[in-house]
């Protein structure tokens, strides 16, 4: 793998921003970003873009905000970008199998827990509620289950007595970006799917 990978990033909330930053700082080429549609927020119900969209637009990267990801139009739009790899961090929807298998290196997910613990939504909150002494992020190969794919890289972080779900959220968002993604992509152990 000597040529830069063509990567599509899928993420929406603030938790995903450090992951996109990490990809933008790598030699890889982010060819597109997919995030949830803008939503109305606050008392005035002002239409606000997701944090990932804001960063992508600042970086000049094309952004897709589909309302449906299970149709031919979306699949064709992603296919046209010719991705080698899709990286997902807190996108907010379950991806169809055809999308997961589209890139030659498949689709990886940056998940905010030490899998297999705390699969699915709210892993950070559950780690705090359950009194865990450590948390972390896991880079995993995605399959059609919910956080059930092969674990590629887990990175641990101690939970301190002062940590709340808010402080842990910030720490894990950062950990999922530069330390995890850059380490994984830099290892050059990204392999083609069978």
TrEMBL record:
Any one GO MF annotation of this record:
methionyl-tRNA formyltransferase activity
Give the Enzyme Commission number: 2.1.2.9
Stretch forming the signal peptide = none
**Every Formyl transferase N-terminal domain range:** 6-173
Keyword Membrane among UniProt keywords: no
Task: Please name the InterPro entries in this protein's record.
Answer: Fmt, Formyl_transf_N, Formyl_transf_N_sf, GART_AS, Met-tRNA-FMT_N
GO CC list: cytosol
Q: What class of enzyme is it?
A: transferase
Q: Which UniProt keywords apply?
A: Transferase
Q: Does the keyword DNA-binding apply?
A: no
PANTHER family according to UniProt? METHIONYL-TRNA FORMYLTRANSFERASE, METHIONYL-TRNA FORMYLTRANSFERASE, MITOCHONDRIAL
Q: What is this protein called?
A: methionyl-tRNA formyltransferase
Q: Which organism is it from?
A: Candidatus Electrothrix aarhusensis
